[in-house]
Design goal:
The chain is of the alpha/beta class. The chain has a single domain, classed as 3-Layer(aba) Sandwich (Rossmann fold), CATH 3.40.50. It is about 30% helix and about 25% strand. It has 6 helices and 9 strands; from the N terminus they run ααββαβαβαββαβββ. Helix 1 packs across helix 3. The relative contact order is 0.13.
């Protein structure tokens, strides 16, 4: 894809930020997030038949009934985590690996769980092939998180859960952040930002979104 396609995607993200800023509280995003979005080649994370649309601001099918999120939502969720270079992040829902690749530009380590074994295998191969060696993909139900590598500075969930899994909050650092869509598809869901301040937990709605459903135990 051309540099013009990438720049057009970034401009669209900026426009979406301004349009939704009164809801999200973010009229723009951190420059590091824009830089990461510009660096990751989105066409590498979608099937051949939709590569011409890779930089459109739309979700795209990736097989197995799953989708890659639209660039604006990826950028917004990344920014909500407020990632720092020394952070360790847990992702629930690897999909094609695109969100993990964006995070890998910004943090020290990413663990990513994918419940569909075929997608997990493909994403792991793709990320390794593209040189994202700080990402580890694990084929697993993310309902219980990944306690063996906890605590996490941030946790990001890319499928809509009917409720916030308690295990994910427990696996945050004392000042960690959780970004998760909550609600039952096909109805719109709330994108929530959950913040931990020691033993105090706060949660606020950021935006109405539409994600594929969480298919693990917490989704039952």
């Amino acid at each position: 894809m051309s540099a013009e396609s990438i720049q057009a995607m970034l401009r669209t993200i900026e426009e979406e930020c301004r349009f939704t800023g009164s809801l999200t509280g973010r009229y723009t995003l951190r420059q590091q997030v824009f830089d990461a979005m510009a660096t990751v080649r989105r066409e590498e994370f979608v099937p051949d038949e939709v590569k011409p649309y890779a930089y459109d601001n739309n979700p795209l099918p990736i097989g197995n009934g799953q989708t890659i999120s639209q660039p604006f939502i990826v950028a917004l969720m990344t920014d909500l985590l407020e990632p720092d270079p020394d952070d360790t992040i847990l992702e629930i829902g690897t999909g094609s690996g695109y969100q993990a690749a964006v995070l890998a530009q910004l943090v020290k380590r990413v663990y990513s769980l994918e419940i569909i074994p075929a997608l997990a295998k493909q994403a792991a191969h793709r990320l390794h092939h593209l040189g994202y060696n700080t990402v580890e993909v694990i084929a697993s139900d993310g309902s219980s998180g990944l306690p063996e590598h906890a605590p996490y500075d941030g946790i990001i969930v890319t499928a809509a859960a009917p409720r916030i899994p308690k295990a994910l909050i427990e696996q945050l650092t004392p000042f960690g952040r959780l970004v998760i869509p909550v609600g039952r598809p096909p109805l719109p869901q709330d994108l929530l930002l959950v913040e931990k301040f020691g033993t105090k937990i706060t949660s606020r709605s950021i935006l109405s979104v539409a994600f594929v459903p969480f298919t693990g135990k917490v989704g039952c």
